[in-house]
Description:
By secondary structure, the chain is of the alpha/beta class. It has helices at 16-30, 50-60, 89-112, 116-134, and strands spanning 36-42, 71-77, 82-87, 149-151. Strand 2 and strand 3 (82-87) form a beta hairpin.
Amino acid sequence: MSWFGLFKKSEDFFSEKEKEQIVAAIQQAEKRTSGEIRVFVESRCRFVNPLDRAAELFFGLKMDKTEQRNGVLVYVAIKDKQLAVYGDEGIHQKVGEKFWQTAVAKMIQLFKGKNYGDGLAGIVTEIGNALQEHFPYTDDDKNELPDDIIFGK
Length: 153
C-alpha cells in the first residue's frame, strides 16, 4: 500500500504537529520578507500537470494581488503524488525556473522518506530565504494573505 493510500481526507495527511510545523515555517519566513507563502493540499489534482492546478489555485486565491507580486503557492495533491510550486511574476523574475524545479525535487526526496512536515516546512523556509533576498522585510510591511494551510477535497 502506498503512503498516500492511508489518508481519506487531505486534512488527515499531516499530524497536528506537522501542521503546526508548516504554519510556523510560513510565519517565520514571512517575518523576514514582504513576500507571501501559502500551502494548498488536496487529495487529487484535476489536471495532468500539477503546475496548471497550482496556477489555477494561485489566481483563484487572488495571490496575484500582492503589492509586489511576490506570492508563492506550494501545491500538493496527496493521492495523485503530485507537487508544484507557483511563484508570482515578481519573485519568478528574480529566481527563475530552476529554483522552482529544485524546490520540488527536494520536497519529493523528503516525501519519499515520509518526512512530509519536514518536506513542506523545509521548502517554505527555502522560499522564504529567496523572498528575503529579493524582497526583504520593511517596517511598513503587512501580512497580505493568511498563513494557514488550505485543505481542498
